[in-house]
Write a structure and sequence with these properties.
mainly alpha; 2 helices; elongated
Amino acid sequence: MSETPVKQQTTMAYHGQAVASFAVALAATTIGILKLQTDAWVRAFLGIAVLYLVTSAFTLAKVVRDRQEAGRLVSRVDQARVDRLLAAHDPFEPS
């Protein structure tokens, strides 16, 4: 008997909350940098740093997701091999 893994899906509310949270955080940071009482080059540096941080976070999330999916695929292949070996094995067959 093989167990089928349960596919986990997020709800639309969770997805919407994640998008809204990201948008609010990015907007608040952008407004904070623009309202900062300092030279333009300092604001530009902070803006570039925020963009770099955001792109790095997306890349890290993608890498983690890809590694998890690869691990699931290897696990499924290994499980299929074990199932095939067990199906071919007859414990009552003389050696």
